[in-house]
Amino acid sequence: MLLSSTFKIAQISDCHLFSKTDGLHHGANVYHNLVTVLHEIENQHLVDAIVFTGDITQDHSEKSYQLFVRAVVDSGITVPFYYLAGNHDEHELLDKYLSVPPFNGKKVLNEQFWQIVLLNSKSATPKGHVTSSDLCAFESIVDGKKHQLLMMHHHPLDVGYFIDEHGLENQAEFWQTINKFSSIKAITCGHVHQALTLYSDHSSAIPLFTCPATSIQFDTNKSAGASNGQGAGYRVFSLFTDGKIKSDSYFLIKE
């Protein structure tokens, strides 16, 4: 039997917004999807924090960042809202526009029993890369007296479809660092536009959760990005005092 949940997090990812609210990504109105997801989280889940794991923008416009901020502020969300850069995003624009409440630029959340670490995987290409210096910095902040949930954009395990071309390119180095710490209980990422639970040959004890996108879910049978027709999605994590994690994926019913 699980102990009482000590911390609850909603994760959203991969909004792929345009400069206008009627922009379509593979046929989906992605701004409308984002607004609907945010309102569902606010109205149906009592979360302590929300974490966005990358790819606000599709057209790389500053207006798309502004629309993201508008959607969050208009939703009435007041819990801390943390964020990471995806391969489509720019750190400078994230920090420029996500600078008003409820946004918070911290990358380490320290709770009584848990550390939630937001790890940058953005590189100069669409592929992910966690630098050696970032891995060293991660090692230095891990509190072995707490449990860790690691959150990132790129997937550190292959998922078996076209997005693997743009996955984490230094997987072996990444897992070599992760395996040093038995206190790491799970990793979650965006980028793959699917809700998956995977285990690595490098570390069979640590699950990798992937977050469904608020934009579209990828058709895994295609050789490039295309929608599988499923609605927008998000994840909710319940973190328990004994180190256990419960994670549920939610999808909007398409109108």
From TrEMBL:
<dbReference type="Pfam" id="PF00149">
    <property type="entry name" value="Metallophos"/>
</dbReference>
<comment type="similarity">
    <text>Belongs to the cyclic nucleotide phosphodiesterase class-III family.</text>
</comment>
<dbReference type="InterPro" id="IPR050884">
    <property type="entry name" value="CNP_phosphodiesterase-III"/>
</dbReference>
<keyword id="KW-0479">Metal-binding</keyword>
<dbReference type="InterPro" id="IPR029052">
    <property type="entry name" value="Metallo-depent_PP-like"/>
</dbReference>
<dbReference type="GO" id="GO:0016787">
    <property type="term" value="F:hydrolase activity"/>
</dbReference>
<dbReference type="InterPro" id="IPR004843">
    <property type="entry name" value="Calcineurin-like_PHP"/>
</dbReference>
<keyword id="KW-0408">Iron</keyword>
<keyword id="KW-0378">Hydrolase</keyword>
<dbReference type="GO" id="GO:0046872">
    <property type="term" value="F:metal ion binding"/>
</dbReference>
<protein>
    <submittedName>
        <fullName>3',5'-cyclic-nucleotide phosphodiesterase</fullName>
    </submittedName>
</protein>
<feature type="domain" description="Calcineurin-like phosphoesterase">
    <location>
        <begin position="7"/>
        <end position="194"/>
    </location>
</feature>
